[in-house]
């Protein structure tokens, strides 16, 4: 890569971190997307300042031939548009070649959701006499009871858990903080786990991290996936379950229980209500029954 081009990407990523406050994972996704374009442009003897709309169309066609899904292509388009908007804002280019660029249509993707019975089976399957199971039960209670992202869970600090006030302070994407109520079962599970946690030889720098492994270090995201997969096998649950499935289930069950969509948005930490609205599509049978039950034209005498 030409050094000047590499410098532009580095400045763009710094802009996303400092000005936009985006998370590390999101910034890394932007870096990968712009890197793909940079490799393509350099391979054709061009530079960012010489890129045209037709060049971008040819690049997207190449992504398609590589077998990149429509969803992944849409994400790349979003990254590229943000990058060229930044270049124009900085005066590096006078016109934005990506202005008319459109992402491929992406169908509505409905996430996997666990039923209340499946959640109860998972949480109830732990052996409370084992320290590791006590920790894992607390993890499941917090994932489902608070709707946390896996990154938020592994980084959750003891100092952010307010047991008496019954809420947790969560640091979400872009270091944005939100308060989420802490359920009675979650508080009980955390209290029991803390008894065992206090007996660990805690590694330096992990003193305030809530969930630790047996060596006293912070759990990894991968370990959370492994714990969930193992427990689903124990319970005979064959769905594709991930930490995010608990978050989806949290939101869906709140909606089914009558919670306001705006309140769910706040608890999930979604910047836009549009992101939260996907949960309206999850259980059409439930929504149909709600209309039949509560709409005045459907009321049965």
Describe this structure in words.
This protein is mainly alpha-helical. Helices cover 55% and strands 4% of the residues. The protein contains 13 helices and three strands; from the N terminus they run αααααααβββαααααα. Strands 1-2-3 form a three-stranded antiparallel β-sheet. A hairpin with a 5-residue loop joins strand 2 and strand 3 (177-181). Helix 2 (24-43) packs across helix 4. The longest helix has 20 residues, at 24-43. The protein is elongated and about 65 Å long.
Overall pLDDT: 83
Secondary structural class: mainly alpha
> How many beta strands in the DSSP annotation?
3
Q: Looking across the biggest beta sheet, what order are the strands in?
A: 1-2-3
Q: How far is it from the N-terminal to the C-terminal residue, by CA? A: 74 Å
Radius of gyration: 23 Å
Number of helices: 13
Shape: elongated
Helical residue percent band: 40-55%
Largest sheet composition: 3 strands, antiparallel
Query: Oligomeric status of the shown chains?
Result: single chain
- H-E string: HHHHHHHEEEHHHHHH
Strand content: under 5%
Low-confidence runs (pLDDT<50, min 5 residues)? none
In short:
This protein has 13 helices and three strands. With 301 residues, the chain is mainly alpha-helical.
Topology readout:
Layout: H1 3-18, H2 24-43, H3 53-65, H4 70-89, H5 116-124, H6 131-146, H7 150-154, E1 161-162, E2 167-171, E3 177-181, H8 184-197, H9 221-235, H10 243-256, H11 261-268, H12 273-276, H13 284-294
Antiparallel strand pairs: 1-2, 2-3
């Amino acid at each position: 890569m030409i050094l000047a081009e590499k410098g532009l990407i580095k400045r763009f990523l710094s802009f996303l971190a400092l000005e936009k406050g985006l998370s590390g994972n999101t910034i890394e996704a932007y870096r990968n997307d712009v890197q793909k374009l940079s490799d393509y442009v350099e391979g054709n003897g061009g530079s960012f300042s010489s890129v045209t709309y037709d060049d971008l169309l040819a690049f997207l066609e190449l992504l398609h031939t590589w077998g990149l899904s429509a969803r992944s292509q849409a994400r790349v388009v979003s990254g590229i548009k943000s990058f060229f908007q930044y270049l124009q804002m900085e005066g590096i280019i006078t016109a934005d070649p990506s202005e008319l660029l459109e992402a491929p249509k992406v169908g509505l993707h409905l996430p996997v959701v666990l039923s209340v019975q499946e959640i109860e089976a998972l949480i109830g399957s732990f052996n409370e006499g084992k320290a590791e199971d006590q920790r894992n039960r607390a993890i499941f209670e917090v994932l489902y009871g608070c709707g946390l992202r896996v990154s938020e869970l592994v980084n959750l600090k003891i100092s952010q858990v307010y047991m008496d006030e019954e809420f947790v302070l969560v640091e979400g994407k872009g270091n944005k903080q939100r308060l989420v109520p802490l359920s009675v079962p979650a508080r009980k599970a955390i209290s029991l786990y803390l008894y065992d946690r206090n007996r660990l030889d805690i590694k330096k720098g992990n003193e305030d991290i809530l969930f630790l492994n047996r060596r006293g270090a912070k759990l990894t995201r991968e370990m959370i996936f492994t714990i969930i997969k193992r427990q689903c096998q124990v319970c005979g649950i064959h769905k594709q379950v991930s930490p995010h499935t608990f978050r989806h289930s949290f939101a869906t069950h709140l909606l089914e229980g009558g919670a306001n969509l705006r309140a769910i948005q706040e608890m999930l930490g979604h910047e836009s209500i549009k992101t939260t609205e996907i949960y309206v599509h999850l259980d059409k049978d439930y929504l149909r029954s709600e209309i039949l039950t509560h709409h005045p034209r459907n009321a049965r005498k």
